[in-house]
Amino acid sequence: MSEQRFPLPPEAIDQSHYLSILSRAPAEAVKCFADQLIPDLGVIEVLHNRTGLIMASMTDSAQGTPFYLGEVLVAEAHVRLDATEGYAACLGRDLQQALAIAVLDAAIVSGRARAKIDQFIQLQATTLEAADQVLLEQVAQTRVELETF
Predict the structure, then answer these.
(1) Which of 15, 46, 129, 143 has the fewest C-beta atoms lying within 10 Å of its C-beta?
(2) What is the pLDDT along the chain (149 residues), one digit of tens a residue?
(3) How far is residue 107's CA from residue 10's CA, in Å, rounded to a whole number?
(4) Pairing verdict, β 84-91 and 44-59
(5) Which phi and psi angles does 5 have, rounded to 5°?
(6) Which residues does 52 contact at the CB level (< 8 Å), separation at least 6?
(7) Using CA atoms, how far apart are residues 91 and 93, in angstroms rounded to an integer?
(8) 3-state secondary structure the chain
(9) Taking a C-beta distance cutoff of 8 angstroms, is the pair 93, 75 a contact?
């Protein structure tokens, strides 16, 4: 089966899903994986790669009204791979992590190395789900049941 070399239609890609996984995955794993793919991707133009503050919003669980929790430091990157652009933002100040995610985003949208990237994302998703499950089990152990009259 040959790799697709044309941009995939937007409805075929759940960008929010894979960017969420990549931004939560261990930074070193994402950077190493992107470094392995870069030689096969061609010319990559970095449009910007910087840190900044964004407002973190939350929703009040009782009233359902939105409010701002505070400022969060993020690293963001915007790249161009031929005619396809990729973007990433992740918590913290790791500019290389943001750049790696943006490169992977551009590669996915352009259809390059799609099988390898999909396999990597699936591995990271499985690892993150297992870690989330362990955390949920640890939190469940702290649950206190109160009797009310």
Answers:
(1) 143
(2) 334 334 444 445 688 899 999 999 999 999 999 999 999 998 999 999 999 999 999 998 889 899 998 999 999 999 999 899 999 999 999 999 999 999 999 999 998 888 899 999 999 999 999 998 999 999 888 888 888 87
(3) 14
(4) unpaired
(5) -115, 15
(6) 73, 74, 76
(7) 7
(8) CCCCCCCCCHHHCCHHHHHHHHHHCCHHHHHHHHHHHHHHHCCEEEEEEEEEEEEEEEECCCCCCEEEEEEEEEEEEEEEECCEEEEEEEECCCHHHHHHHHHHHHHHHHCCCHHHHHHHHHHHHHHHHHHHHHHHHHHHCCCCCCCCC
(9) yes
Place of tokens 């994402």: 30
Strand partners, 48: 78
pTM here is 0.80
φ and ψ at residue 135, rounded to 5 degrees: -60, -45
What distances in angstroms separate CA 130 from CA 17, 20, 30, 116, one per listed residue? 17, 16, 18, 22
Per the listing, tokens 């499985």 go with 126
Q: Is the dihedral of CA 115, 120, 123, 126 positive or negative?
A: negative
